[in-house]
C-alpha cells in the first residue's frame, strides 16, 4: 500500500514539475531572420526575461499573456497556453524613428552603431502614398533618385550620382528580393516584375558595399516581401482604383504559429494611362514561408510568378514636353511598342544557430524570365536564367571589455541568356539581325569584422575578392552568312579587391559619429566586351572602380523625439567607360570600341530629420510627425572626354557637372494619426534642374510635387480590420518627367528624351479589409 501511495505522489509531483517547465524561444527580425539581442518580455507589467546575443530567452509562464519589446521594433503581444511550447517570435521595425534599428551585413543593431549611411523603409513608409510605385517612397531618401520609363517598368535608380549610365533598366547597384539577387551576373537590374505593393520592408545601403555584396558602386537595395506579423490565420482583400483607369487588387492568405508562417498573395493591376499608347497590365503570384524546426534552425522559401505588359509610346522633345503634348514618337506608335515580361523566382534559405558564437545563413536560388520588346526600329526577344547561391558565417566573441563579431562568406551567380533581334517597320517583323548566346558569371569571397572597444569606439574592416567572366556566342556567324561580323568571344576580368574600413565613436547612448573609406566596382556589359568589326575581344577593358570617403553623425535628441542623420561623402570614380574610334592612316574611322578613360568626382551632403510628437491622452491626435530630407550633389567630370582619340574632334568635359544629377533635392512632409483612427500623410518634393548632356548645354527644368493621402483604420469587432483611404498625386498640376534620356551632347533638332508624368492632379481611393480567425 505504501508503495502505491509513494508511486501516486511521485506521479503527481512529476506532472506538477512538467507543468511548471519554463518556456523557451527566440526573438528575431521578421524579415531578415537575424536574432534580436536585448529584447524584453513582460507579463502584467513584470519583466520576465531578456534575450541573449542569439535572441534566445527562457520564461516561467503558463497560460499567460506576454508582451515582447525591443528598441526600434514594434511590440508584440502573444498568449502562451503551454509552457512546453517552443516560441519563435518575429518583430517588425518601428515606423517612426530614423535611428532605432537597421539591419546591415546580416545583423540587427542600433543604427547608431552602423558606420555607414543606411536607410530603412518600413511598411508604413512604403504605403504613405498609393503603395504601388516604389519611387514615391524611395525618392524621399536623401541621396537616392528613382526614375521609370513606363507606368511601372524600366526603372532606373541613381544612388549618390551613380547608376544612370544607361537609359534602360538599372546598372551600378545591386538589388535583392528576399535574399535573391534581382541584379543578374551581367550587372543589370530589371524591376518590371517586382510587386512593390506587397513589400514589407526595403533597405538602401548608400555608396560602395562591395566588401559584402560584390558589384555596385552606387550601393545596395534590399527588398523584403510582407510576412505575417502575428499568430493566427488571416484573410485579406485589398482594392484600389484611380484616375486614368488605375485598378489594383490583392487577395492574400496568411498563417503563423510558433513553428511556421506562410503567406500566399495574388495581385492584379491595370492602368489605361494618362498618355497615348502607355497602358499597363500586370499579374503577380507570390508565396513566402518560414519554418522553424527548433530555436536553432529556420528554413525559408520564396516563390513567385509574374506576367506584365507595358506599352511604349516613345519620348517627347523639349518643345512637346513644354507644351504638355499628349503624343508619342511615330515609329513607336506604328510598331505598337511594348515590353512584355514573364518571370519566375524560387529561393530556399537555411539559417542555423550553432551556438551563441557561430551561425550560418545559406541561400540558393533559380530565376528566369522571357522578355519581348517592340521599339522604334526593331523587335527584341530575350530568354534568361539565373542560378546562384550565397553563404555567410556569423561569428561572435565576447570579452570583458571588447567584443569581436564578423562575417565570412561567398556568393556565386551565373546568368545564361539567349538574345534575338529582328527588324520591325509598321509592325511588320523583318529579318533576323542578331542571335546571341551569353554566359555571364560573377562570384566573390568576402569577410567583414567589427571590434567594439571601451570608451564607445568601434572599428569595422572588411574585404572581398570579386571575379567576372563573360562568354559570348554569335549564332549568326556561319557559312551561310559570310559578311556577318562575329561578336563571339570570352573574357575573364582580372579579380577586383574591394576593401572597406571605418571607425565609429558613440558619444553617448543617443549620439554617434563615424568616418570610413570603401572601394567598389561595376563591370562593363557584355556588349562592350567584343569588338564585332574585327571579331576580337576587348582585352584591355576593365570594370569602373570607385573609392569613397564618408563621415557622418546620427542621433536622437529631446527624449528621442527628434531624430537626425547627416552624412558627407567624396566618391572618386575611375576607369569610366567611354568610346574610342580606331582610324586608318588617312583618318577614316574603321570602327569604335569601348575603353577606360577619365573619371568623375561625386561630393555630396545628405541630411534628414524627423520630430515625433505624441500628445497626452486627452488630445485628438496620437501622433504628429513632421520630417524633412535634403540632398546636395556637387558631381563633376575629371579628365573625361568624348572619346579617347585625343584629336581635334575630341571634346574635353573635365570640370563639367555630371549629367542626370539634380544638384538639390528637398523633401518635406507631415504625418498625422488621430486616436479615432483617422490618418493623413502629406509630402512635398522639390527636384532641381539638372544637366542632361556632357557639355552642360542642355538642362531639364526643376519641378515640385505635392501628394497627400487621407485614411481611416478601424477594428470591427474582434475579427475584422478595415482601412479605407483616398489620395492624390501632383496636386498642383506640375509639369514633370518620370525619366530623361541622357545624351553625350546634341545640336540642331532637339531629340526625343522626355517621358512625361501626368500633367494634372490624379486621384485614387481604396480599402484594405482583413479577417483574422
From TrEMBL:
Top-level taxon of the source organism: Bacteria
Every TonB-dependent receptor-like beta-barrel domain range: 304-731
Positions of transmembrane segments: none
PROSITE patterns from the UniProt entry: TONB_DEPENDENT_REC_3
InterPro entries in the record: Beta-barrel_TonB, Beta-barrel_TonB_sf, CarboxyPept-like_regulatory, Plug_dom, Plug_dom_sf, TonB-dep_rcpt-like
GO cellular component, one term: cell outer membrane
Ranges for domain TonB-dependent receptor plug: 113-220
Keyword Ion transport tagged: yes
Membrane topology per record: Multi-pass membrane protein
Compartment(s) where it occurs, according to its Swiss-Prot or TrEMBL record: Cell outer membrane
Pfam family, any one: Plug
Keywords of the record: Cell outer membrane, Ion transport, Iron, Iron transport, Membrane, Receptor, Signal, TonB box, Transmembrane, Transmembrane beta strand, Transport
Signal peptide range: 1-19
An annotated Gene Ontology molecular function: siderophore uptake transmembrane transporter activity
Residues in coiled coil: none
Family membership: Belongs to the TonB-dependent receptor family.
PANTHER family assigned to the protein according to its UniProt record, in alphabetical order: FERRICHROME IRON RECEPTOR-RELATED (PTHR32552), FERRICHROME OUTER MEMBRANE TRANSPORTER_PHAGE RECEPTOR (PTHR32552:SF68)
Name of this protein: Iron complex outermembrane receptor protein
Protein source organism: Chitinophaga polysaccharea
Amino acid at each position: 500500500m505504501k508503495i502505491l501511495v509513494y508511486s501516486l505522489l511521485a506521479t503527481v509531483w512529476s506532472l506538477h514539475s512538467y507543468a511548471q517547465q519554463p518556456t523557451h524561444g527566440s526573438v528575431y527580425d521578421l524579415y531578415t531572420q537575424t536574432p534580436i539581442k536585448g529584447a524584453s518580455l513582460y507579463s502584467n507589467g513584470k519583466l520576465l526575461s531578456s534575450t541573449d546575443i542569439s535572441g534566445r530567452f527562457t520564461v516561467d509562464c503558463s497560460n499567460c499573456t506576454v508582451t515582447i519589446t525591443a528598441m526600434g521594433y514594434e511590440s508584440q503581444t502573444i498568449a502562451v497556453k503551454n509552457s512546453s511550447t517552443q516560441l519563435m517570435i518575429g518583430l517588425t521595425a518601428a515606423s517612426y524613428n530614423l535611428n532605432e534599428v537597421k539591419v546591415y551585413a546580416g545583423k540587427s543593431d542600433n543604427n547608431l552603431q552602423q558606420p555607414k549611411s543606411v536607410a530603412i523603409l518600413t511598411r508604413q513608409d512604403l504605403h504613405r502614398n498609393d503603395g504601388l510605385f516604389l519611387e514615391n517612397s524611395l525618392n524621399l531618401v536623401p541621396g537616392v533618385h528613382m526614375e521609370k520609363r513606363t507606368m511601372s517598368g524600366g526603372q532606373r535608380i541613381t544612388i549618390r550620382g551613380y547608376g544612370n549610365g544607361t537609359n534602360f533598366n538599372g546598372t551600378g547597384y545591386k538589388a535583392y528580393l528576399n535574399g535573391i539577387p534581382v541584379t543578374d551576373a551581367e550587372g543589370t537590374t530589371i524591376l518590371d516584375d517586382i510587386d512593390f505593393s506587397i513589400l514589407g520592408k526595403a533597405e538602401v545601403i548608400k555608396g560602395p558595399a562591395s566588401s559584402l555584396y560584390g558589384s555596385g558602386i552606387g550601393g545596395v537595395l534590399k527588398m523584403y516581401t510582407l510576412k505575417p506579423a502575428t499568430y493566427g490565420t488571416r484573410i485579406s482583400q485589398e482594392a484600389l482604383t484611380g484616375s486614368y483607369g488605375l485598378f489594383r487588387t490583392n487577395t492574400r492568405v496568411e498563417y503563423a504559429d510558433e513553428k511556421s508562417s506562410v503567406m500566399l498573395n495574388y495581385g492584379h493591376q491595370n492602368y489605361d494611362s494618362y498618355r497615348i499608347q502607355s497602358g499597363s497590365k500586370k499579374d503577380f503570384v507570390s508565396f513566402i514561408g518560414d519554418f522553424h524546426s527548433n530555436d536553432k534552425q529556420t528554413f525559408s522559401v520564396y516563390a513567385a510568378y509574374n506576367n506584365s505588359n507595358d506599352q511604349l509610346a516613345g519620348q517627347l522633345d523639349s518643345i512637346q514636353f513644354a507644351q504638355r503634348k499628349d503624343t508619342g514618337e511615330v515609329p513607336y506608335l506604328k510598331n505598337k511598342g511594348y515590353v512584355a515580361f514573364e518571370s519566375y523566382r524560387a529561393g530556399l534559405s537555411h539559417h542555423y544557430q550553432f551556438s551563441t558564437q557561430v551561425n550560418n545563413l545559406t541561400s540558393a536560388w533559380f530565376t528566369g524570365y522571357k522578355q519581348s520588346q517592340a521599339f522604334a526600329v526593331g523587335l527584341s526577344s530575350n530568354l534568361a536564367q539565373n542560378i546562384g547561391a550565397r553563404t555567410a558565417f556569423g561569428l561572435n566573441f565576447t570579452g570583458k571589455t571588447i567584443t569581436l563579431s564578423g562575417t565570412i562568406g561567398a556568393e556565386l551567380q551565373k546568368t545564361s541568356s539567349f538574345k534575338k533581334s529582328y527588324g520591325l517597320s509598321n509592325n511588320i517583323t523583318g529579318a533576323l539581325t542578331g542571335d546571341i548566346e551569353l554566359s555571364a558569371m560573377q562570384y566573390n569571397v568576402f569577410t567583414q569584422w567589427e571590434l567594439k572597444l571601451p570608451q564607445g569606439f568601434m572599428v569595422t574592416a572588411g574585404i572581398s575578392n570579386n571575379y567576372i567572366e563573360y562568354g559570348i556566342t554569335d549564332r549568326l556567324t556561319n557559312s551561310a552568312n559570310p559578311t556577318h561580323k562575329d561578336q563571339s568571344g570570352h573574357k575573364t576580368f582580372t579579380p577586383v579587391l574591394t576593401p572597406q574600413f571605418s571607425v565609429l565613436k558613440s558619444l553617448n547612448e543617443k549620439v554617434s559619429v563615424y568616418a570610413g573609406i570603401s572601394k567598389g566596382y561595376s563591370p562593363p556589359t557584355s556588349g562592350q566586351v567584343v569588338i564585332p568589326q574585327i571579331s576580337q575581344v576587348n582585352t584591355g577593358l576593365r570594370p569602373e572602380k570607385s573609392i569613397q570617403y564618408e563621415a557622418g553623425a546620427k542621433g536622437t535628441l529631446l527624449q528621442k523625439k527628434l531624430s537626425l542623420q547627416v552624412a558627407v561623402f567624396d566618391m572618386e570614380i575611375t576607369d569610366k567607360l567611354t568610346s574610342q574610334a580606331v582610324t586608318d592612316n588617312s583618318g577614316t574611322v574603321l570602327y569604335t570600341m569601348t575603353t577606360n578613360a577619365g573619371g568623375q568626382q561625386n561630393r555630396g551632403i545628405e541630411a534628414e530629420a524627423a520630430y515625433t510628437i505624441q500628445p497626452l491622452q486627452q488630445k485628438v491626435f496620437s501622433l504628429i510627425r513632421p520630417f524633412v530630407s535634403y540632398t546636395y550633389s556637387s558631381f563633376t567630370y575629371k579628365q573625361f572626354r568624348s572619346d579617347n582619340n585625343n584629336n581635334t574632334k575630341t571634346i574635353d568635359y573635365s570640370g563639367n557637372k555630371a549629367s542626370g544629377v539634380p544638384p538639390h533635392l528637398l523633401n518635406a512632409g507631415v504625418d498625422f494619426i488621430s486616436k479615432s483612427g483617422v490618418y493623413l500623410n502629406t509630402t512635398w518634393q522639390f527636384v532641381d534642374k539638372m544637366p542632361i548632356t556632357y557639355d552642360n548645354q542642355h538642362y531639364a527644368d526643376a519641378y515640385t510635387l505635392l501628394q497627400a493621402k487621407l485614411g481611416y483604420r478601424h477594428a470591427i469587432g474582434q475579427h475584422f480590420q478595415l482601412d479605407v483611404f483616398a489620395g492624390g498625386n501632383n496636386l498642383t498640376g506640375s509639369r514633370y518627367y518620370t525619366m530623361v534620356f541622357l545624351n553625350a551632347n546634341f545640336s540642331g533638332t532637339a531629340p526625343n528624351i522626355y517621358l512625361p508624368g501626368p500633367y494634372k492632379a490624379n486621384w485614387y481611393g481604396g480599402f484594405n479589409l482583413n479577417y483574422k480567425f
